[in-house]
Design brief:
The protein is α+β, with helices and mostly antiparallel strands. It contains seven helices and ten strands. It binds zinc ion (ZN).
Length: 273
Amino acid sequence: METVRLGLERTVVGRRVTGVSVTGTRTVRRQSRFELRSRLTGRRIEAARRKGKFLALLLDDSQVLSIHLRMSGQLLHVTEPGKVAKAPHTHVIARLDDGSELRFVDPRTFGEWWVTADVRADGLPAVFDRLGPDPLNDGIPPKLLAARLAGHRSALKAALTDQRVVAGIGNLYADEICWRAAVRPDRRCDDLAPDELRRLSRSTMAVLKAAVEQRGSSLRDARYRDLMGNAGSYQARHEVYDRAGEPCSRCGEPVQKVRFGARTAYCCESCQH
Ligand SMILES: [Zn+2]
């Protein structure tokens, strides 16, 4: 998501929205399509911010356009709309004053756009308050991570991917973070030792930063792509995710796909404890 935010900063910040088309039936659901269009049209985009998996485009009248990509949403910035056919499942198009378009493509339609005037002093929507700290924005030192996990009896991976606990960690990254920290993803949160929390804190920062540097992972399922539609290259560096049966790069034993509760995770059972 940080990759997408950086792309928005480069392409749409400073531009004015000249028109909005909404064709998806589910993409705009917190308000009517008419309301989204009328709140957005004519506004200049002042900044691109992010909290966890939510994107926030700050508008010149203090409103915010919030976008959540969910499972399959993808934002495309198209500089010459006349030359680029509309992709299937394009649900929203925002036309900008430089002739370009910001298009939202979302085959599974879980993604969402809405414009709100209910914002905090930092300019972000009030609904973002219920999100946990975002490691890339706020850092996640061991004490903060311990505080966020305290009292959770759930499995570590379940907590790491819970946006109310820590914002911005997806399924894939949770597995990579646990591997790097040498901690099993199905460990109970309230059973982690201080040293394990220190390793998880370091791993979280390292994995998320590497992912941003590699422009996000490009998986067919998650459709993480940058705004130009280019696939990222982080997938080449996954240590465990989707690598069941391949040797662990740390100990050489095969990576496992483990199940706990209703979840699954990839990990190395021989060197993650
Ligand atoms: Zn191993």
